[in-house]
Specification:
Beta-lactamase, Nuclear Transport Factor 2, Chain: A, 491 residues, 14 helices, 2 domains, alpha+beta, 29% helix
Length: 491
Amino acid sequence: MTTSSITIPGPALDAVERLFADRASPEHAPSSSWGVFTRTGLVRTGSTGVIVEEGDTQGVPPTSATVYRIASCTKSFTATALLALRDEGALNLDQPITDFVPAFAEVRLPTLDSPVPTVRMLLTMSGGFPTDDPWGDRQESITDGELDALLRRGLSFDSVPGTRFAYSNLGYALLGRVVAEAAGRPFRDVVTDRILRPLGLASTTFTVPGGLAHTAIGHRRRGGVWEPLAFSGPGLFSSIGGLFSTVDDLSRWARWLASAFDQGDGDAPGDHPGILSRASRREMQQAYRDIPGRANPIGYGFGVMVEHDPELGPIVSHSGGYPGFSAHMRWHPASGVGVVGFENATYAQVSVPVTTALHGLLREVGAAPATTIWPETAAARTVVEQAVTAGAEIPPSLLSENVDLDIPFPSRRAAWAEAIGSIGPLVKPPAHDDTSLVVASAAGEESSAPSHLVWRLPGERGSLRIEIRLTPESPPRVQTLVVRAEPPRQP
């Protein structure tokens, strides 16, 4: 059921430790706590600085059990609660927000033909509201009545709802109301009883923890010294960033989300499908709304961001920033490797070392995603290679009708011979397993999908590139057959 776990070499984990140690300084943040995890759990944790508790002038080093605010990482819990209610039939993602927050009906929309923002629009940060981090971070404690009064006074819009991305805490505050209305219970109770307790996240809470090992106090730098900040209390905006958590708990949460991509056909023991199925967790971790201005393609899913790295494939993440705190969680679904990190200083940007650490680990363990092709694709490779190199016949049943209609076979065979002649005689390639279903890019193989395969045969003056793509029929047939010469690859 479960994909095997990657083993990370000790020296690679030592490099992560040095990365955080080199970043630490008395001026940057009073403390940090971080952890690296694989599918089996945490494999290395570390910390810098000290946690100073009330009445303690010396302080103690943080551990993986030290509690920090995770701020906007909370949004993934909000999205999970919404999808769980959707799966039960308690709501529809395309319902307008006015079905749950009647006061929103008094909001004047930006144009006469603007749609009322839907639950889906708010989940994907496309409700049309302006980006609002500095303002939203200070609204946690407001009440339902205060939000209704704000709505009745009117809202400002950056765009027509449903047309573009803008990170919106207001949108996720409204989603907290959706959860409460659909469940018939307060938002914080829904998340606690339906997500945190079943997953055993005992150190994750919406209130300042009591009875736990240590709790980091948030700080801001002023006049060259660290000034402690008071905690805001829970309220209507808790759904945007109100949770406290630990490296132990947040890594378990991230592993649970990432496990939705483990190989298998359904929920497995330990998947806790009663909280949210693997199918719905995969739905969360898709890019639905493009986020502009990034080096790699990245989009917002449901409570998480999804980046497509050209070498590593999809990477899922979310940052959290609250007055006095910085948090980041980041994982690679294909390998199950991830990193979480906290720092207790305003604008500390712990996302920087977490991102650097994860990408370094993934390259160290060779975690570039491998495509598993269909057995029919592997079998077609053998038949096509024999036809191209030895003049063997391709059974008509293997080819879709368009192949000969697109380029008649006499013309194809002449072009194949010309291509082989241009690169010199083919060199006997290394033996390969014709039954292998895993594409190895290092061997000159490429695949964009199980139905697709590119491979190369070496020649004296280059290589012969062969590409096939199969049809959506069952059984599938070859619909694309491209053969061409390539010059030698540069070292």
